[in-house]
Design a protein that fits this description.
- By secondary structure, the chain is of the alpha/beta class.
- The protein has 2 domains: 271 residues, TIM Barrel (Alpha-Beta Barrel), CATH 3.20.20.100; 66 residues, no CATH class.
- Helix 2 runs parallel beside helix 13.
Length: 407
């Protein structure tokens, strides 16, 4: 190569480098232009105020639909959602696997992962560590940012203490496999206070929404955690989806105030407005829900006094409809005679929402006869499993009676 050819080659190389650099800058600038959801501080971490709950993922052949879940997670991460919450029981043990699969394409330090110790299945203390290590493998990680003892109630509280669960998980925290140790609870304020005072916790996960704030005294639970200096993760902010639909009259009240805001956005903002809450979990099952949540929290502002009054009015109207206070968590599944309890309650609540008798009859008759409410034998097993303390046998009888009266 002569000098002229060398200079010509160097010139084109330089131009190419400049163009490539410019393209990279444009791509970076474009990426930075994407609106991100609001974040709150937890310790020294910036955490998206809305978290992705991995318990209501889209389904395919009875399992989480990985392709759809991936597109939802991609959109969420692109818009700044960085907190993901899974558990042993979600999707019959498949949620942790799905979570590990869809998050594996991202750098581990780019998101925060929460999982939970399934107290309900523990028989003795030797099971704690093997379960924990299996969860790490299923989630394709070597540590959890946030780890909880799952769903403490009176029975599980006893299991937690007898199996030395806290002490064993504390060792995992010292090893760096758990960054922050907390617990979730569906029980009385009195039990919450006992749990808070027995061990030192980094955070707590509580069910908080506009209905539970007064009906099950979620306010008192919030106050207990706050007084103890324990930051809160909110679960069930939409009460299992009830606050996403409401009744027609209740939804109209919200729409009249803010025509472009979804019913879900009101309740999510309600929980996120509480000062001691650092993330609100939303169990999303379709991309449209992710998009709506992102829209809600990109320019997040706490509810104003006027908005709180409007929401309170809508909730009062909804409560008067007689809907069953079920969150569809599916903890009651496994009925000995095969009743699909969540589905029966869902259909009933939809009827209470739209008052369409024909739709209720059609929907109820789509349930297989052996899975219908009228097959209840009043054994009470489901009642003992329900985090909401619902009298499920009595409510199933109500569903069955409504069907018979309408039919």
């Amino acid at each position: 190569m002569n000098r002229r050819q060398f200079l010509k080659s160097a010139l084109f190389t330089t131009i190419g480098t400049v163009v490539l650099a410019a393209c990279k800058k444009v791509a970076t600038d474009t990426k930075n232009l994407i609106d991100k959801v609001f974040t709150k501080k937890y310790k020294n971490l910036d955490i998206s105020v809305v978290g992705f709950g991995m318990m209501r993922l889209p389904q395919k052949d009875g399992e989480p639909d990985i392709e759809k879940t991936q597109s939802m997670v991609d959109y969420a991460i692109e818009h700044g959602i960085n907190y993901f919450d899974t558990a042993w029981f979600y999707h019959n043990g498949k949620s942790e696997l799905a979570t590990g699969t869809v998050l594996s394409k991202y750098p581990r330090k780019s998101y925060y992962l929460a999982d939970k110790m399934p107290l309900r299945i523990l028989k003795d203390k030797t099971e704690v560590i093997p379960i924990f290590e299996e969860q790490l493998k299923k989630c394709q990680t070597n540590y959890f940012d946030f780890y909880l003892t799952h769903n403490i109630n009176k029975r599980e509280w006893k299991v937690l203490k007898e199996c030395n669960v806290y002490e064993q998980l504390l060792e995992k925290k010292k090893e760096g496999k758990i960054k922050y140790l907390g617990f979730s609870i569906h029980d009385t304020p009195e039990l919450l206070e006992e749990v808070v005072n027995t061990y030192k916790w980094d955070f707590v996960q509580l069910p908080i929404n506009p209905i539970d704030w007064t009906t099950v005294d979620a306010k008192r639970q919030y106050d207990i955690a706050t007084k103890a200096g324990i930051p809160i993760v909110v679960m069930n902010p939409l009460k299992g989806g009830q606050l996403s639909t409401l009744t027609e009259k209740a939804a109209e009240i919200l729409k009249a105030e803010k025509p472009s805001a979804s019913p879900s956005s009101w309740s999510l903002r309600y929980s996120a407005s509480l000062p001691n809450v650092f993330v609100v979990l939303s169990g999303m099952s379709e991309l449209e829900q992710v998009i709506d949540n992102v829209k809600t929290f990109i320019n997040f502002k706490p509810l104003s006094q006027n908005e709180q009054a409007v929401l309170s009015k809508a909730i009062n109207v909804y409560n008067s409809s007689g809907a069953i206070s079920c969150t569809y968590c599916q903890y009651c599944t496994g009925c000995p005679v095969g009743i699909d309890i969540p589905k029966n309650f869902l259909i009933y609540n939809q009827y209470k929402s739209n008052n369409r008798k024909d739709r209720f009859i059609i929907a109820y008759e789509t349930i297989k006869e052996e899975n219908r409410a009228d097959k209840c034998i009043n054994c009470g097993i489901c009642k003992n499993k329900c985090p909401q303390k619902l009298d499920i046998p009595s409510l199933l009888k109500e569903v069955s009676n409504v069907y018979k009266s309408l039919k």
